[in-house]
Amino acid sequence: MNKLGENLIFLISLPRSGSTMLQRILAGHPDIQTAPEPWIMLHPLYALKQNGIHTVYEAPLAKQATDAFLSERGGEETYLDAIRAMASVLYGKSLHESGKKYFLDKTPRYYYVIPELQRTFPEARFIFLFRNPLSVLSSMLSTWFGNNLEFFIKSYNYADILNGPELLMQGSHLKTKYSATLAYETLVSTPAVCIKDLCSKLDLQFHKNMLEYGNTTLDASQFGDQVGINIHKRPNANTTNKWQKNMARKELVDFSRQYLDKLGKNIVVQSGYDFRLLNQQLDKITY
Questions:
Q1: Residue 235: its pLDDT value, please?
Q2: At what angle do helices 250-263 and 133-144 cross, to 10 degrees?
Q3: What b/e string do you get for 67-82 counting C-beta neighbours within 10 Å, with b at 16 or more?
Q4: Beta-carbon neighbour count of residue 116 at 10 Å?
Q5: What is the DSSP letter of 125?
Q6: Residue 3 maps to a domain
Q7: Is 2 contained in some domain?
Q8: pLDDT tens profile 33-91
Q9: What is the rounded distance in angstroms from the CA atom of residue 91 to the CA atom of residue 79?
Q10: Cβ contacts of residue 283 below 8 Å, gap of 6+?
Q11: Most CB within 10 Å of its CB: which of 16, 96, 194, 243?
């Protein structure tokens, strides 16, 4: 296990963006080991932030105490060194047991700690997966909330759609040794070209059997896609427009339009999508 992350691949996206499918595709590579959404780097790296953690032990005070301790012992770089040591044990054990070269950590909410991940593991490979924000919204609503907007707005997933796009977009623009950005729509429409290009950018050898992700299994888990992943055996372009059928209710169309306005044209466009076209598609939905 390389201390600076040479053996690591991070796949980061919003939830319901096709990351489980891409993880399964990459798991078909003979050198890649993975497990469903480890989440193991989220808490230790988020501890570097001033806000966002609420605990019974008073997280802001703990942050002050940790900073004071580190100030006489090398500062944050010492803390990052300790995280690298922890990562060597956790990721390294999985690599040792599998006999493979790379560990792929697919955890969507790492979008909250992308700069910290890149600082901790400068030699790691990063994949940023984007998807039409209305497809993501529709998939969350239909899969987890039965299209109930009241339940959705009270959930952590509402924060995902509000915070995730901008943080993911900003993180994808940071300079790293190995990184690749791709869109779900491109992945399912031209999978061979897309995965070949991805492997090239990450300095990995492409194997055509990777596309047959139905032949690849992951450990049983409650995390990751448990529904759509088992419907198809390889990327399927017919999934890109399902959101329009699901959102065929006035309240869902209105909510979708409000959501696009909250994101703003700049974030939508920089994420690779046409702000005007998405609004036009909402206009054409009948209910």
A1: 77
A2: 130
A3: eeeeeeeeeeeebbee
A4: 21
A5: E
A6: no
A7: no
A8: 999 899 999 999 998 888 888 889 998 899 999 999 999 999 999 999 999 999 999 99
A9: 18
A10: none
A11: 16
Tell me the pTM: 0.92
Q: What is the DSSP letter of 147?
A: T
Cβ burial 252-272 (10 Å sphere, 16+ → b, else e): bbebbeebbeebeeebbebbb
Q: In what helix (H) or strand (E) does residue 181 lie, and over which residues does it extend?
A: strand 178-183
Q: Note whether residue 1 is domain-resident.
A: no
CA distances to 78, 84, 185 from 69, in Å: 11, 19, 47
% of the chain beyond a pLDDT of 90: 77
Smallest CA-to-CA distance from 127 within 163, 171, 85 is with: 171
DSSP 13: E
d(CA 273, CA 251): 23
In 3D, which of 225, 121, 224, 127 has the Cα closest to residue 168? 127
Q: 173: domain range?
A: 8-284
Residue 261: give its domain's CATH number: 3.40.50.300
Whether 218 is covered by a domain: the verdict is yes
Q: β-strand 178-183 against 125-130: which pairing, if any? A: parallel
Count of the separate structural domains present in the chain: 1
Amino acid at residue number 63: K
